[in-house]
Each structure stands twice: as C-alpha cells, then as structure tokens.
Amino acid sequence: MGSHRKYAHSWKYQTRRKKKGTFFVLFTIIFSLIIFTVRFIIVLPYFYIRDVRIRGLKRLSPSQLTAKINIPPHTSIFTLNLDKIYKSIESQPMVKRVIIKK
C-alpha cells in the first residue's frame, strides 16, 4: 500500500510538471507574438512622420526651426523623442514658449 501512495504522488508530480511546461511554452509563444507585433507596428510606414507644422513664429522662419528639430526620415511617431525636440526648440534664444502635440 505504501508503494501505491508513492506511485500516486509521482503521477501527480509528473502531471503538475507537464502543466508547468505547457504554461511556459504558451507564455513564451504569446510573449514572442506580442513583441513581434509591437516591433512590426513601430516600423510600419503608416506611422512615419510626414508633416511637421509650426505655428506662431514671429522672429524665426519655419525652415530655421525645422533644421533645429532634425527629425530623421522614416521616424515613427512611437520612436520620436518629444523631450529632446522640446529642449532643442526651447534652447533657441528667440523662442518664448513651446507646445508639442502628436
């Protein structure tokens, strides 16, 4: 009777171990799909910055300010560093206030 208990315990242990293994595999697959999807969306041309609108300029020309912003081609709206752009524009001596919107 003692060996029967040992066998039952072993069977439960193996079942629990299989469940953990299955969970790990499913978790890995789902996590990989999420990462792949996010990376795919980030590089879609649909999300590239096509247009930069600058309003309210009195002392600087839009081309001068756009040159200071320096956004590389094929930059996604998700990878754009707004803080860097904000600081770049704000550091200009003739700029009074900066508001950036996506």
TrEMBL record:
<keyword id="KW-0131">Cell cycle</keyword>
<dbReference type="Pfam" id="PF08478">
    <property type="entry name" value="POTRA_1"/>
</dbReference>
<keyword id="KW-0812">Transmembrane</keyword>
<feature type="transmembrane region" description="Helical">
    <location>
        <begin position="21"/>
        <end position="49"/>
    </location>
</feature>
<protein>
    <submittedName>
        <fullName>FtsQ-type POTRA domain-containing protein</fullName>
    </submittedName>
</protein>
<dbReference type="GO" id="GO:0016020">
    <property type="term" value="C:membrane"/>
</dbReference>
<keyword id="KW-0132">Cell division</keyword>
<dbReference type="InterPro" id="IPR013685">
    <property type="entry name" value="POTRA_FtsQ_type"/>
</dbReference>
<keyword id="KW-0472">Membrane</keyword>
<keyword id="KW-1003">Cell membrane</keyword>
<keyword id="KW-1133">Transmembrane helix</keyword>
<feature type="domain" description="POTRA">
    <location>
        <begin position="47"/>
        <end position="102"/>
    </location>
</feature>
<dbReference type="InterPro" id="IPR034746">
    <property type="entry name" value="POTRA"/>
</dbReference>
<dbReference type="GO" id="GO:0051301">
    <property type="term" value="P:cell division"/>
</dbReference>
